[in-house]
From TrEMBL:
Residues 1-21 have a biased composition (Low complexity). Residues 59-190 form the DUF1468 domain. InterPro entries: DUF1468. Keywords: Membrane, Transmembrane, Transmembrane helix. The chain crosses the membrane at residues 51-71, 83-102, 122-142, 148-181. This is Tripartite tricarboxylate transporter TctB family protein. It holds the Pfam family TctB. Residues 1-43 are annotated as: Disordered. It comes from the Bacteria.
Length: 190
């Protein structure tokens, strides 16, 4: 008669069952593997990054508040005027930056599970910012529709998109939607 017993209770004993369990992907007791990252080495770098993001957000929000308040009103429309939207965005950025400061300074650092920052990622961010800056400059001299399609195609290529949908259909459709919404629907010239 062939009877099977539960793992770790048969003649092979708990040691053999533990080895078999590890090879089959069974989890071990927490902290037993020794593969856990060192929290002390992770903490300061991540905290500095989050504080830097909060500082940049705070500076940008304050700049929007100040610059939005300096927008010249040609006609006093009352209520929502041209200053309103930049100031709402600036105030929102300030509130979120202060919340990020508070969270970063008061909560313990936890492992994020995200991939660590890489040089390639940093290059992509800088290239994206350069493309957007070039877009803003080009928009003054070239039609909105041409600049926007070119920007979206360049960003898609930068982030590895391939195919006709990502490189042609998506940029043209998004540009068309923005153009119809603002220029045709809201009568805001782009």
């Amino acid at each position: 008669m062939n009877q099977r017993s539960a793992p770790g209770t048969g003649p092979e004993g708990p040691a053999v069952a533990g080895v078999v369990g590890r090879h089959l992907g069974a989890s071990e007791e927490p902290g037993a593997s020794g593969d856990a990252p060192d929290r002390q080495s992770m903490g300061p770098t991540r905290k500095v990054r989050e504080l830097t993001v909060a500082a940049v957000g705070l500076a940008g929000g304050l700049a929007l508040l100040v610059l939005g308040g300096n927008i010249e009103l040609r006609v006093n429309v009352g209520g929502i005027d041209p200053r309103w939207w930049p100031q709402v965005l600036g105030a929102s950025a300030v509130v979120l930056a202060v919340a990020l400061f508070a969270q970063t300074l008061t909560r313990p650092v936890r492992e994020s599970g995200n991939e660590p920052a890489s040089r390639a990622g940093a290059v992509r961010v800088v290239a994206s910012l350069a493309l957007v800056a070039g877009y803003v400059v080009a928009w003054q001299h070239v039609d909105f529709r041409i600049c926007t399609v070119a920007l979206l195609i360049a960003l898609a290529v930068l982030y590895g998109a391939r195919g006709i949908v990502a490189l042609v259909i998506y940029p043209v459709a998004v540009t068309g939607l923005i153009y119809v919404l603002f220029d045709v629907g809201l009568r805001v010239p782009l």
